[in-house]
Amino acid sequence: MKSTIKTKTLVLAVIASLVTLTMTGSAANAIGTLKQDALTGTSATVDTAATDAAIRKLVNGRTIKLGFAPPILSEAYTIAQQGAWNQMKDYETRYGVKWVWTEEAPLNNAHSGVETTGFIQNYVAKKYDAVFVCSAAPAAVMQQLYKQGSAKGVEFYQFNSTEQLNQKSQATDATAGLSSVSNISYDNRWQSGALAAQYIAKELKGKGEIIMILGPAGSDWTKLREQGFRAVIKKFPGLKIVGAADGGYVRDKGLTAAADLLTKYPKINAIYGENEDMALGASAAIDAARLKHWDGKSGIITIGADGLVSGMDEIRKGNLTATVNVGYADMGRTMIRTMFAHKVLGMDVAKFIRVPTVIVDKSNVDIFQSQIKAELATKVKY
């Protein structure tokens, strides 16, 4: 009984010492200042020695096994994973926690989600502590797997997810009908699709013709980003979407789709690619058609979404006008912060956590590309 009281007292002391738990990252982290306190969100000038010592005592050299299940191996998920690894390294150094990290991603059709279900079952069978999942598998299937795994002690955290498509109200149910502990993402409608449309409307002063390069038909990401994009475009009578095609979320298909549409609509003013790879494919199609890229006054605007180093390189060159940086590095760090707060410190965490997103073009590419490069430059690996 005394041991139980002692443990509870220690946990309360740790929690009481925290100023705040920053679940969505911070402005400082967003511009590349990575020396910020990993847990509290306070600056490095705040003395956290007592808190660190208390948490280190609670951790007691514990090893935490984490599974990482992205929908595909890509630059975007490499950035998210590196952000997670960097946060893990922070906690290892400060609190003495040890980590086991296993990544499993589909090698075939990323948008079927079939392979991911097998990965989840494998993580549960091997008794992992927590699993981070981004999957295109049907939501009901995934939630059932999470429910079964949770009953066996495995925690699930969705990231870069589209749970808002089927989200129930939290008015009477705090879980919103979800078996995942938390869902760390951005709203694909209003933090991605809508932002791209707003940028186009601003640059074109509310007048012009647009073509869209969409993700696979039936994809939740496709539905949500298109919904947000169209909702904003409708507000501008002078803007018209004249054509759309499936670019499969990959560069070569994006190029083919854009090339076909440019043949039909050579006088368009903007191309919206639902992700960065398709937008870069569209950029190549503009070159192939010997059309002009946007220079701030004339040409074709090309905008995507992701926030990749490769995409920002093309922004610098003028081949990509802009992109929606959805904060993959911040997402990765937030995944670890959230899991640690809940799994180790016993804190209640938000069911839905939204990371900040931002339009990146030539005016601010230095800020956001340097932040991503700083994350990738650490060479930390698990």
Automatic annotation (TrEMBL):
CDD domains: PBP1_ABC_sugar_binding-like (cd01536)
SUPFAM superfamilies the record matches: Periplasmic binding protein-like I (SSF53822)
Periplasmic binding protein domain: residues covered: 68-342
Molecular function via GO: carbohydrate binding
Keyword Signal on entry: yes
Example of a GO cellular component annotation carried by this entry: cell envelope
Record keywords, A-Z: Signal
Pfam families xrefs: Peripla_BP_4
Record's keyword annotation contains ATP-binding: no
InterPro entries on file: Peripla_BP_I, SBP_2_dom
Annotated localization: Cell envelope
Family per similarity comment: Belongs to the bacterial solute-binding protein 2 family.
Protein name per its UniProtKB record: Unannotated protein
